Structures are given as structure tokens and as C-alpha cells.
């Protein structure tokens, strides 16, 4: 938490795990049953394709086609790009109280979003949840000017440039310790998100 509260001018949120229960790309139970694997095991098998999706090298159609090709899956009513995508996009649930917090913070702070997301989920949350209402600056790993995932330095640098602030004036909230550690090394103040009551308690100290 910030030692000098008055120096914080921006608060930057992660999406999955902070603003919502994290989505699962391989949420399809039909896919899991067909492969006899859980989502973590699927990710391990297709790690390169998976990471490439998060940095924007695939769109929705090409990603799911690549997954089906890798596992030699024939298209069925249950296993096809649309069905697999639908399972993914329905696998998370928003924490509306966290979004409401972000909205309230706009009265006194710049509020941003910095997230590792696929193009598919990025476009979905923007449309479904009007993220621009809550976050005036949004940066995603799959964006054309980013194309790397946290904890790499570039995503942090991009959002700082867009917010026109140095790291020392920004508070970054993430549920991944490796990401908060990377941010702290750049000079950000950080909160390692554990749960919503913990977040609200810590945030109260600066608002």
C-alpha cells in the first residue's frame, strides 16, 4: 500500500480475478470430456498456441480452428469454434461491486485497466460491460501496441504512457503476485488482490 497517499493519481485494475471471477478458455465440458483432460492439462498441451492468443496472433475463428487441428477434432454440434467460444465467454462472472468502486474512484483519480486478455474476451467485455464507463484507459496484452503479457515490462510502460503519469503516481491492483512484483519493480504502488473485502479495506485507506 502507498506510504505517501497523496502521491497516488491513478488506480489501475487487472480484469480477470479482480473485476471478475476469471474466465476459462477451455471451459467447454464437451471438449474436456472428448480429450479426457481438465482445462489446465489442455493449456499445458497447447501452451504456445494459448500464449499466442493472448498476444493477439489469433482471432476467435483461427484460434479455435488451431485447437481443433492440434487435437485432430472433427467439427460437431458441441465442438466447433462457435460452441467453444460460447463456453469460454460464459465462464466468468463480473464483480459489479468492484466495477462500481472503479466508477467512484474516477471522482479523484485516473482509473485504468491493464489485463492479459485474448482478442475474443477483450471485445466481449467491452461490449457486454461497457468497460469504457469504468476505465478511461484500457490496455490489453492482445492490443497491437502491446503483444506481450504481464509480467513483461511493456504492458506497464504502455499504460503509463497513455495515462501520462510516472509509475510512482500509480496504484496497480492484480491477483497475480508475479504481476504485482513486476509493477513494484517499476515503481508502482501495488495491491495483491486476495478477495473483495480485502481490496475494499485497502482502498479505503486512500479514498
Automatic annotation (TrEMBL):
InterPro entries (alphabetical)? HAD-like_sf, HAD-SF_hydro_IA, HAD_sf, PGP-like_dom2
Pfam families recorded:
Hydrolase
Source species, domain of life: Bacteria
Q: Which PANTHER family match?
A: ALPHA-D-GLUCOSE 1-PHOSPHATE PHOSPHATASE, FLAVIN MONONUCLEOTIDE HYDROLASE 1, CHLOROPLATIC
Q: What is this protein called?
A: HAD family hydrolase
